[in-house]
Amino acid sequence: MVTSFQTLSDILNHGCDTVIDVRSPAEFAIDHIPGAINLPALSNDERARVGTIYKQISPFEARKLGASLVARNVADHIAQAMADKDGAWQPLVYCWRGGQRSGSFASILSQIGWRAQTVQGGYQTFRGLVRQAVYDTSLPHRMILLDGNTGTAKTALLTRLAAAGVQTIDLEALADHRGSLLGGHDLGQPSQRAFETRIALALHRLDPARPVLVEAESSKIGRLVIPPALWSAMCAAQRIVVRAPLAARAAYLAQAYVDIAADRDDMARRLAPLRYVRGHDVVDGWLDLLRTGDLTGFAAALMAQHYDPAYAKSRRIVEHGVLADVASETLDDKGQESLVAAILPLVSDS
Fold it and tell me: Which residue in 95, 146, 161, 224 is the catalytic one?
């Protein structure tokens, strides 16, 4: 059965027991429907091989080889991943365009007796709905930015506020990045498509009638670009500015970056681009502080000589309306709790 999905809500609430992405692992890694499992009809190498034959020999020979490979792979999946499925199991199967791979896969499952459905248009239908949500639609949500200098524990505050029932979007978590030159994770970032899927899913889960708190970011987080619909809403949003003394921010940042600061060579590599912005002497001074083990001093110097001036400049260029300023002398648990208490009334549903 071919199923047509007209909205993102429809496809996310598909009603099937399992979503099966039968594309190659490489295609799946770029992006996929949330919750899908990857049972490839063709492996990466097999897909490339069939494509080569299609172009260099003939479409007929390519389809013949592809059919034999798909049948073999589906047999393996039935014997392994589907071995425990009973007769009532209802899978939703999709490929790139909703064509031969998903059709062949679902046909075999249907012959067994499972009520397999396929997605009309395949992954491209889902991708089109995501693009519509984050590119083509004005968001109905009321966004409020959580703003402040580097080191003011904004991400930690966002987590605490979410636990207190505030609607939030943690863009740095969705981007697998901590939002600064030093913020990359060892595992890297998702693809731009996967990032946009994560954002679309996060927005889908929110109640548009309630405010949404988002950490103030530039238009890029690492190498990923915030899609237009969300970026426009952020640019129009009011902001709550978090303030704390440099010493408190340095102490907090020293703890937050203790993992990446442990690798001195990697830190030197991350800081290298700033030599052309702040000068060799300044960057060498930062690295000297690292070499002596003064991580708090390093964090303080980095903020005072780079991040704070950059923040001040960006705020002169982009001036959002300030809803409120909240401040704390410390950013330990007690300090963060006091900031949460000050922010909560500002983001109430009223």
Answer: 95
